[in-house]
Design brief:
261 residues, alpha/beta, 9 helices, 10 strands
């Protein structure tokens, strides 16, 4: 069991709702993933318009925890306004806070992000800020009141995996009481297993599943990888060694050795 923002979850995999070939495939992939939290963007899909009615009905039918996000926002003011809309529409104080600062990398703007987080926490939101793997930014977000941080492994949609494992390891070591969900850049199930083996609390995926040849199968693969990585971490991973060490030590005489008569 995994507790986050006063919700108990069975799955440590969060999943997005964008980029799928069809709403039907999206629904099937989400169900196959076993995820209990799905992210939705108000700036890309609007539930109060008829054009998005079918999409929103499908999301509601899942009966899962909805994590609205502020994707597409570029200032703290925009993000805060979008968060207010999300709370009204979905009756939730959860918000995945995204404030983008660069068009090429889609890297978050750390100054606007921290400012928005401060405002939203004062207004009673449970903020899930999307950040880079920068320790100082993460610390400022924690100082602002964030209990959860969502650092990237690599730029959104790049599928590069962990471009700076040491930075992520530093975050995990320096913020032991903070829930850390790796968000963005994971392209393979092995990437998800890797971050879970490092002690992260979960992962959020969209592109790696939605853009797969078989999104449903890929969602299932990521679910297994997240579970395996977490189990490996809590079971205690074997430490790396400089030299070889025999798995079958040589002690005494082989059992098949016969003494001469």
């Amino acid at each position: 069991m995994f507790t986050i923002a006063n919700k108990e979850l069975d799955s440590r995999l969060f999943i997005g709702t964008a980029l799928y070939p069809s709403p039907e495939i999206m629904l099937a992939a989400i169900l196959a993933s076993g995820a209990q939290v799905v992210t939705v963007s108000l700036r890309r899909q609007s539930p109060d318009t008829k054009g998005g009615a079918h999409f929103w009905e499908m999301i509601k039918s899942l009966n899962l925890n909805i994590l609205p996000n502020t994707a597409g926002c570029r200032t703290a003011r925009e993000a805060v306004t979008t968060a207010y809309m999300a709370r009204e529409l979905f009756n939730t104080n959860w918000i995945k806070l995204e404030v983008i600062g660069d068009d090429y990398t889609l890297q978050p703007d750390p100054f606007e992000l921290v400012e928005a987080a401060k405002q939203l926490i004062l207004e009673g939101f449970e903020v899930f800020p999307y950040s880079t793997d920068d320790l100082i930014v993460a610390q400022r977000l924690v100082d602002a009141g964030c209990k959860i941080i969502m650092p990237w492994a690599a730029p959104i949609g790049s599928g590069q995996g962990l471009t700076d494992p040491k930075a992520l390891a530093t975050l995990r070591a320096r913020l032991p009481e903070t829930i850390l969900i790796v968000d963005a850049g994971l392209g393979k199930p092995s990437h998800a297993a890797q971050v879970m083996e490092m002690g992260f609390d979960g992962v959020l995926l969209t592109s790696a599943v939605a853009l797969a040849v078989d999104p449903v199968g890929m969602a299932r693969a990521f679910a297994q990888a997240v579970s395996a990585g977490h189990q490996g971490f809590i079971s205690g991973l074997m430490p790396e060694r400089e030299l070889a060490s025999p798995s079958t030590p040589v002690i005494g005489t082989p059992f098949w050795h016969q003494q001469p008569s």
